[in-house]
Amino acid sequence: CSLVRMLPLNRQTSMLPSALLRRFYHGVQEDAHEFMIGSFLSLDEELNPVLLPTLRGQLRTILQCADCETERASAEGDPFGCLVLSLCTAAAGQEIRSVEAALAEYRRAEPMAANYLWHCPNLACHAAGALKRMDFRSLPNVLWFQLQRWRMEGPGRPMRNLFHEVRLDEVLRLRVAPLERRHDVPGDPLL
């Protein structure tokens, strides 16, 4: 499918996206997010991968000691192209009413599973528990996100759609997390 050739050359021309629509299964519901991904992938193939690099960033996992708060970040960044942001809090299921709050919830620390073996890098600490959070290692030129407008009611129970209004601020206050330093080796960057 040549999506670039399908684009109209002037504003009086419309296009029938039949070539693009063939990428999707007939009779199966596809949402706008999946359609957008298919469109961007088609454009990126046509333009010799120049579009998607502007949409890619890197995340990193940060583990934090539950007792002394010493942190250890993943050495490698995990690439991402789109963030899926929940519109309800994981802990209490409360509605999230802004994109900025949804980003904060995405980056919120949560306890590690009990079977995860954590050894605090602070030699003076002997804690066994840790918290895990995601943070940005690098931000893309264009931040692309999907708002998850449903929540699970519980195991074996159906999803519940969320219809509340969500505010998108003109400016999102994002930052790339600074490099942490280990407590056991002064001056040693943790990345």
Describe it.
- The chain is an alpha+beta fold.
- The chain is 16% helix and 21% strand.
- The protein is built from four helices and nine strands.
- The protein has helices at residues 3-6, 18-21, 32-46, 99-106, and strands at residues 57-65, 71-73, 78-80, 83-86, 110-111, 130-138, 145-148, 150-152, 159-161.
- The strands form three sheets. Strands 1, 2, 3, 5 and 6 form a five-stranded antiparallel sheet that branches. Strands 4-7 form a two-stranded parallel sheet.
- Strand 1 and strand 2 form a beta hairpin.
- The model is unreliable at 180-191 (pLDDT under 50).
Could you give a quick summary of the protein structure above?
With 191 residues, the chain is of the alpha+beta class. It has helices at residues 3-6, 18-21, 32-46, 99-106, and strands spanning 57-65, 71-73, 78-80, 83-86, 110-111, 130-138, 145-148, 150-152, 159-161.
* Backbone structural class: alpha+beta
Number of strands: 9
Helix content: 10-25%
Strand content: 15-25%
Largest sheet: 5 strands, antiparallel
Low-pLDDT residue spans: 180-191
